[in-house]
Specification:
single chain, Rossmann fold, seven-stranded parallel beta sheet, binds 2-hydroxyethylsulfonic acid
Length: 251
Amino acid sequence: MTTDEDSRRVAVVTGASSGIGAATARALAGAGFRVVCAARRTDRIEALAAEIGGVAVACDVTSAESVAGLIAALDGPVHVLVNNAGGAFGSDEIAIADPEQWQAMYDVNVIGLLRVTQALLPALRESGDAVIINMGSTAGRIAYEGGAGYTAAKHGTRVVTETLRLELCGEPIRISEVAPGLVQTDEFALVRFGGDQAKADAVYDGVPDPLVAADIADAITWIATRPSHVNIDEMVMRPRAQAAQHKVHRV
Ligand code: 8X3
């Protein structure tokens, strides 16, 4: 994939087709990385890759075969891995929650991250100076009603991140987690509520200036561009209007 003419450091971003993933791909490209945009929706990532001078690779992190295809498309070291693919499905209370939705959340937020990380470790090691940035959430730090399937999965993302940092200590690979609160994107809430636009809009209703995808991409890019000896363990981000999960200022 890399050529003699292209000596840019390589960043792989999963879930790059929209929202935080697409914004991160743009921001890392702006910082000089050659970005591999990985996601299921090829039309979107091909357009994004063309825009930023990157590479599009179709990838579903919940499929071992698909992740093997991502690895096959790489050639040489990888310096940055952003495990962004994830999401929330449903908001039912535990009494009536759908186990299949919980399974799907664990599959993408935890097992998908595991699968991509395992597969990319050799290329990250080969770089001699790499950073893995996992997309966590404030949902990985607290509990809230109707959120247990997602909060359990994002607590999983957090603990896997911490464990990986312990296990790779001594290697030239830094491990970080970015944990945002309320971020207004086109799809996160819409997907969570099964396409119900009114419910999705209500999440951000009246919130003056929620975070946007570019804010998170900016943080990820900052983490990825610190000097090699500086590991940002975790970064919790919320909009000014959200003092805590249940404390949101609305006008
Ligand atoms: C998203 C944050 O508040 O919807 O990761 O759980 S929240």
